[in-house]
Amino acid sequence: MLFFVLIALSACSGQPVTSSCPVEMSPTTAVVRFGDPFSANCSSLSNQTEGMGWESTLGGTPLTHGFTFLPLKIDSVTDWTVNAQCFLNTLDENQCFKILPITVYKTPDSVSVHQVDQKGPIVSGQLYYLQCDVENVAPMRHLSVYWYQGNQLVEKHKVGDPDPIPASKSFTQGMRAHSDDNGTKIWCEAQLNFPGVPNAYTVRSEPHELIVLYPPFFMDPANETHEIRADSKTTLNCTATGNPSPSYSWHFPDNTQMNWSQHKHPAFLTPDNDVPGTYKCTASNTQGTTSKYFTVIKAKGNRTTFAALVGGFVSLGALLFVGGLFFMTPEGTFAFNKGSYLKGQPTSSGPV
Ligand SMILES: *[C@@H]1O[C@H](CO)[C@@H](O)[C@H](O)[C@H]1NC(C)=O
Ligand SMILES: *[C@@H]1O[C@H](CO)[C@@H](O)[C@H](O)[C@H]1NC(C)=O
Ligand SMILES: *[C@@H]1O[C@H](CO)[C@@H](O)[C@H](O)[C@H]1NC(C)=O
């Protein structure tokens, strides 16, 4: 408690209290790129003054009288810790001043991403590290580094380092590899943000493309049952996704004779209609192996053919019956009455 009081007292003692100095500066704070020119104005809010002036580590403006505003002009800001203050001499021989805070910045020479401690592709499920190198940037305390993966913000780093001089810094990001990540792009972005400066200064790294190795998996891993019919072909789809691309092998029911030259795509199999049984497909790559079973059964009792036959007989019977109504007279002779014979009229209901 006493400590704070002492600080407060020391801040008030000696020099005049700066906050009460009746000057107005424009701008009130400044952000300048290293090497750029800089200018500011100071004006007095009181007419009881002896004069005003600017002091800065890069030159100033001597005590001047009779100006409504006094300019400070710096041709090139070449000091990372430049400071400037406008001072005012009052008629009673007092002097007060106000500080113009100036932040000098430099955008990074380069921003780049690389994989740490890993040559070659990463494997799904493993933890891997990426490093973002930001070269020669100032000031660190205004630097933020963002990680993006496929346009999604992944992580943000902020630096507390108060050193105003340009420095380089590396940021490491650990991530868990997932099969979905294969082929996605990761990059980092270095941003200098200043309060009140709407357009942040951004430098983005080249994207780093992820290659993730992963074992094959089926989109639909459930085993399948197929009914084979005489009138259509059944295709068993064993397509799996994996990196590297999986290779396939099939295990057929015992009495099957497969002609492999007919199967251009090994992920698809069209079984011989005569051979029901269990077909096993195995997809494998350097990362693993997975299998799926296809049970092929014959359609029961060839019911379709039977139904077609029954339907045919019923139709024929109905046709004969209707034909009889139209063409047979009560006398038992055929009558060719054109008026009652409607061409193309449906004769009966079809198969049941
Ligand atoms: C200083 O004031 C002059 C005159 O009003 C103006 O032209 C100039 O833009 C001002 N400079 C700054 C940095 O405000
Ligand atoms: C993995 O990504 C690489 C690079 O984009 C691409 O060439 C390859 O086809 C991808 N593999 C899979 C299985 O998605
Ligand atoms: C498929 O069938 C095999 C053999 O019966 C079994 O081991 C496996 O768990 C089944 N897979 C699924 C996804 O049901």
From TrEMBL:
The chain crosses the membrane at residues 306-328. GO terms for biological process: cell adhesion. GO terms for molecular function: integrin binding. Residues 215-295 form the Ig-like domain. The keyword Transmembrane applies. Pfam families: Ig_2. Keywords: Membrane, Transmembrane, Transmembrane helix. It comes from the Eukaryota. InterPro entries: ICAM_VCAM, Ig-like_dom, Ig-like_dom_sf, Ig-like_fold. The keyword Magnesium does not apply. Gene3D superfamilies: Immunoglobulins (2.60.40.10). PANTHER family: INTERCELLULAR ADHESION MOLECULE, INTERCELLULAR ADHESION MOLECULE 5. This is Ig-like domain-containing protein.
